[in-house]
Amino acid sequence: MVLVTADGTYPKHYLDEIHFYKGQIADIPESFVHGSIKDGLFQGRIHSKNEWYSVEPAHRYVNDTTKFHSVIYNDKDVEFPEHPSGNCGITEEIQKKMTEKLMASTDPFSDTEDNHRQKRQNQIDKQTCALHIITDHVFFARYMDSNEILRQMGEHVQAATEVFSGHDFSPYSNINFAIERITLYNNDDIGSISYPFDGDYIGAEKYLDIASSIADNQRYCLVFAFTNRDFANGVLGLAWIPNAANRAGGVCADSFNAGIVTTNNYGENVSPVVSHLTFAHELGHSFGSRHDPDGSRECTPGGEDGNYLMFAHASAGDLPNNNEFSSCSVTNITRVLNSIGTIRNNCFDGKTSYQYYSRLK
């Protein structure tokens, strides 16, 4: 991985200060744990028997941390503010405009069907989507620490990999993610002509357009920009949805392969679980899934198990279905992977597991 700021590329030892892990709770084979360790302290997520727990540094919640260093809590115990829930920015109107842009774009793929079939066969064992992650100065202001931002991004990627790798998008059965490049901006970049996200008032649609226009996007499977801006109407994220008709946008495209995520909702910072699910939701769009249809017993069941990941409104993440794709999403993503992702050369990487931040170029 390459880490870039306005001052250039950080040396490897800077990245080696954080170590990422994933595994299981001892003697509970169906459990899953992912997170990072820095200075001997763990932060991350624990999943066991339909229960989700978060482990965070105590200083985020209390001033006196002399008696304990970490806070662990069950997601079901989180009390959310009494305002409308956050949502994905893809409304019917915005979807129409985005589709028109994709349809008007140039189709970069011109291979014959025989070549498509050959490339599809060659790429089945390549299932890692290499990301370029960008964080702006507003995101930096929330954490004020580059190391902490690296931890946050690594944990987002771990959470997304857990969601995707748990589904069979035949013939793809182990879709996972890794950060190939991360670009961090801070207040020193404000006012620079080379800083794309300058300005305090940028709407979600414009922000996505800016992220989509960054140079060399086509080098990566997907590009995602993170911010802590309070977008209008509770928007938490936005991403291009691939259009199978012309194979433009989303995963593996030469253009419009970007998405955005904010960690702020109605003026308040969202919890890690909501942010992780937002990222996975927008990745779902990038891989071809639309929102689960209202009124579908199969794909929007609600009830005690909750709605699935691609429900239009953000969930608390404490119900079993919240972290899973519906059958509608699996069908859409499978269709896109078979018509788009396997057509493009070198879209997916052949490695199926990374120790995060160890891949330097």
Strand content: 15-25%
Report the biggest beta sheet as strand number plus sense, adding barrel if it closes.
9 strands, mixed
CATH architecture of the largest domain: 3-Layer(aba) Sandwich
Task: Please tell me the total number of domains.
Answer: 2
Structural class: alpha/beta
Order of helices and strands: EEHEEEEEEHHEHHEHEEEEEHHE
CATH homologous superfamily designation of the largest domain:
Collagenase (Catalytic Domain)
> How confident overall, as mean pLDDT?
82
Portion in helices: 25-40%
Q: What is the molecular shape?
A: globular
List unreliable stretches of 5+ residues. Answer: 108-118, 352-361
* CATH level-1 class of the largest domain: Alpha Beta
Active site: 282
Binding site for Zn(2+): 281, 285, 291
Pfam families: Reprolysin_5 (PF13688)
Domain Peptidase M12B: 127-339
Structure, described:
By secondary structure, the chain is an alpha/beta fold. The protein folds into 2 domains: 17-77, no CATH class; 87-349, Collagenase (Catalytic Domain), CATH 3.40.390. It has 8 helices and 16 strands. The strands form 3 sheets. Strands 1, 2, 8, 9, 10, 11, 12, 13 and 16 form a 9-stranded mixed β-sheet that branches. A hairpin with a 2-residue loop joins β1 (2-5) and β2 (8-9). Mean pLDDT is 82; it is low at 108-118 and 352-361.
